[in-house]
Design goal:
The structure holds 3 protein chains of 3 kinds.
Chain A: E1 3-6, H1 16-20, E2 26-32, E3 38-42, H2 53-57, E4 63-66
Chain B: E1 3-5, H1 23-37, E2 44-48, E3 63-66, H2 72-82, E4 87-93, H3 94-100, H4 102-110, E5 116-121, E6 124-125, E7 131-132, H5 151-154, H6 160-165, E8 170-177, H7 181-199, E9 204-210, H8 214-217, H9 221-235, E10 239-240
Parallel strand pairs in B: 2-3, 2-4, 4-5, 5-9, 8-9
Antiparallel strand pairs in B: 6-7, 8-10
Helix pairs in contact in B: 1-7, 3-4
Chain C: E1 5-9, H1 10-20, E2 25-28, H2 35-44, E3 51-54, H3 58-70, E4 75-79, H4 81-96, E5 101-107, H5 123-127, E6 138-140, H6 145-162, E7 165-171, H7 172-176, E8 178-182, E9 207-208, H8 217-235, E10 239-242, E11 249-252, H9 255-270, E12 275-280, E13 282-284, E14 299-304, H10 310-318, E15 324-328, H11 337-347
Parallel strand pairs in C: 2-3, 2-4, 4-5, 5-7, 6-7, 11-12, 11-14, 14-15
Antiparallel strand pairs in C: 1-8, 6-13, 10-12
The chains are: A alpha+beta, B alpha/beta, C alpha/beta.
């Protein structure tokens, strides 16, 4: 199973990754980063297929995908 | 663990100054990925525009130059003619490429300069606060077309890519969009082809990207992408133009 | 050994001077009275391995020069007054990016489209920077075809040495007249430019820019420009002086005007009149040090093909120590030798 890491400080909370994750594994965090933005957060439930959709659409290059 | 996706070498590990959901970040990354996939980082020279992407050189890990507003293709011509073995590209917005720099754009294309152009069409002037651009759609509200662009008053959205396609010096023009990850990958393939054309000395290549500006479109980032798909694309159809 | 001379026009001498200085990039746009430069470059640049482009506008030409200079070339553009106004955008960017470049202005009458007669009415524009921002150009004013050749060669060296745009300021007469010129061997070694754009192999990326957004950064940068200006002001003053010893009236003129003034000086001197001449060659930096006479009765007479532009620099240099008179004609008019002699006689 793959997993993604989102750099919370780099993330601007545009949430395009949330919109495009085919399995709904990314959500808006309740927490704020140092810029005061609700960043995107990966839901660790082991279903990520590593499809890269989130990383490809991310305008801020803050997602890494591992397998 | 194996890395399936990570930042590429030609992109510095820095946060950008762009608004959330802005297309510039995607375009910057695609260019950097193409440069690294082609193995040309050490011979690439980028020309940054005047506009929101004025400090694009802060994010790219290769040689770059500034150009006066609209003059990117004249600057690129000077560089490429002096250094034909380097890979030279310009990165220009709609105001830069299709308003103040129309003359430089048309003539560089008409000379068939062996250059690659990444043209960011977001139908608005972002850096100066959301004024009407040459590519603003009819009916689109901006700070200088507050009731929406009217053809009687403001003329029509300028389809400069279609105009340039008429010129014999131009070898490749394609219009792409960022509205889904699959479209982003298509955009990347187009940018790659524009660079490969230059490597193969084929002449002038241009990729027009319908790029979201959530801030001055008054939409959230996802709505902005949907707007490029549902509205903008009707005026600026996607696909290969030449 | 007898040196060969060739008969060429001032415009051609400037073009050949550029080629002999190792200029490998030229971009221009046709405008009278400097068309011989673009024609000469189109014909001869390729022979020396250089590039010559007829640009779509003066704006494009100066930006091409910006690009070529950024890529490490020795580059030049040329035009005449209305075209130079258009180039001011790029000249400001070149100054702001600390790029070397040579700009030739073969002046004609203005304002507006004016006419195509010779003029010196772009002195303010040339010596005050011309475009937006706090900057200067080195401005050199040849008075003969040979000097046009020499100063063009020098201008490339100065541009590279100080990383500053250098302007050759001539007028339609200088550009069009033909004189014998002795050419010198080509410049072989061009300075290495570690800041130039060449691809970042084996080094960190180079960035050529004039944009400084961080608070205080632009002021800091401007101070480095101004420090450079101070060094140039100290090192690069050039002028010619004739018959200053014992002179009662000293004419001040540059370029073509200085030739006419010189013949007036010769005539007046042969009639026993004590008349001298200061001919500024560098207009910026202005040769202030030439105006150091201790004789309080001495009068300066500035003569220009303008309504009075350089005369302001003469007054600044003299700083009230002596009277400064003016004789000038604008709109393409050229003060004659007779007019000068009559004016001098009134002052003596």
């Amino acid at each position: 199973m793959a997993k993604i890491t989102i750099n919370p400080e780099r993330c601007k909370g545009c949430l395009l990754c949330v919109s495009f994750c085919p399995k709904g594994l990314i959500k808006k965090s309740e927490k704020l980063n140092k810029k005061g933005l609700n960043f995107a957060e990966f839901v660790l439930n082991g279903e990520c297929a590593g499809c890269l959709q989130c990383a490809i659409i991310c305008p801020d290059c803050c997602i890494e995908v591992h397998k | 663990m194996e890395k399936l996706f990570t930042k590429t070498e030609s992109l510095y590990d820095l946060p950008t100054h762009y608004c959330p959901g802005c297309g510039h970040g995607i375009a910057h990354r695609l260019i950097a990925e193409v440069v690294d996939e082609l193995g040309i980082r050490e011979k690439t020279i980028g020309i940054a525009p005047v506009g929101c992407a004025v400090v694009a050189y802060d994010y790219w890990n290769f040689d770059c130059s500034e150009a006066a507003h609209g003059r990117a293709l004249a600057v690129a011509t000077g560089i490429k003619r002096v250094r034909p073995h380097n890979i030279v590209f310009t990165y220009q917005g709609d105001g830069d490429l299709a308003a103040i720099g129309t003359n430089e754009t048309i003539h560089a294309a008409n000379r068939g300069e062996n250059l690659s152009v990444v043209f960011i069409n977001n139908a608005v002037y972002g850096m100066t606060g959301g004024q009407m651009a040459p590519t603003t759609l009819l009916g689109q509200k901006t700070s200088t077309s507050i009731e929406g662009r009217k053809k009687e008053k403001h003329g029509f959205p300028l389809k400069i890519s279609e105009m340039l396609a008429l010129l014999p010096g131009v070898c490749y023009i394609e219009r792409v969009s960022f509205h889904t990850p699959a479209e982003v990958l298509k955009a990347k393939r187009a940018i790659k082809l524009a660079f490969e054309n230059q490597i193969n000395n084929l002449g002038f290549s241009l990729v027009e990207i319908l790029s979201p500006c959530p801030t001055y479109w008054g939409l959230n980032p996802k709505e902005a992408l949907d707007w490029t798909r549902d509205i903008m694309q009707k005026e600026f159809p996607l696909g290969r133009i030449k | 050994m007898k040196k060969d001379k060739i008969l060429i026009s001032g415009n051609e001498a400037i073009a050949q001077g550029a080629i002999d200085a190792g200029c490998n990039f030229y971009a221009g746009y046709p405008i009278t009275p400097q068309n011989e430069i673009i024609a000469y470059m189109s014909k001869h640049m390729a022979d020396s391995g250089g590039v010559s482009i007829q640009a779509e506008s003066e704006l494009a030409a100066i930006s091409m020069v910006y690009g070529a200079s950024a890529a490490g070339a020795r580059s030049m553009t040329s035009s005449s007054s209305p075209g130079i106004s258009l180039k001011q955008e790029g000249i400001s960017y070149i100054a702001g990016a600390q790029l070397p470049a040579v700009i030739v202005n073969i002046m004609r009458g203005g304002p507006g489209l004016g006419n195509i007669a010779p003029s010196q009415s772009d002195y303010f524009q040339a010596t005050r920077g011309g475009g937006h921002g706090d900057y200067r150009l080195i401005v050199l004013a040849p008075a003969s075809v040979q000097e046009a050749y020499e100063l063009t060669r020098l201008s490339f060296d100065l541009a590279d040495k100080y990383r500053i745009p250098v302007m050759i300021l001539g007028d339609g007469i200088l550009g069009q007249m033909m004189e014998p010129v002795e050419l010198r061997p080509k410049t072989k070694t061009i300075p290495q430019k570690s800041w130039a754009l060449s691809g970042c192999r084996g080094r960190k990326p180079n960035i050529v820019k004039s944009f400084f957004l961080r608070e205080g950064a632009l002021e800091e940068f401007n101070k480095t420009l101004q420090k450079n200006h101070q060094i140039i002001s100290k090192n690069e003053i050039r002028f010619e002086e004739i018959n200053l010893s014992g002179a009662k009236v000293v004419l001040v003129a540059y370029g073509t005007m200085a030739r006419i003034a010189k013949s007036a000086v010769a005539k007046l001197s042969s009639n026993g009149k004590k008349v001298g001449l200061i001919r500024p060659i560098s207009l910026w930096p202005f040769p202030k040090t030439a105006f150091n006479s201790k004789d309080k009765k001495l009068k300066y007479l500035t003569i220009e093909m303008s309504a009075g532009q350089m005369v302001e620099d003469v007054r600044l240099a003299v700083n009230g120590r002596n009277p400064v008179e003016f004789l000038g004609r604008s709109g393409g008019g050229v003060p004659t030798e007779e007019e000068i002699i009559n004016k001098v006689k009134k002052l003596l």
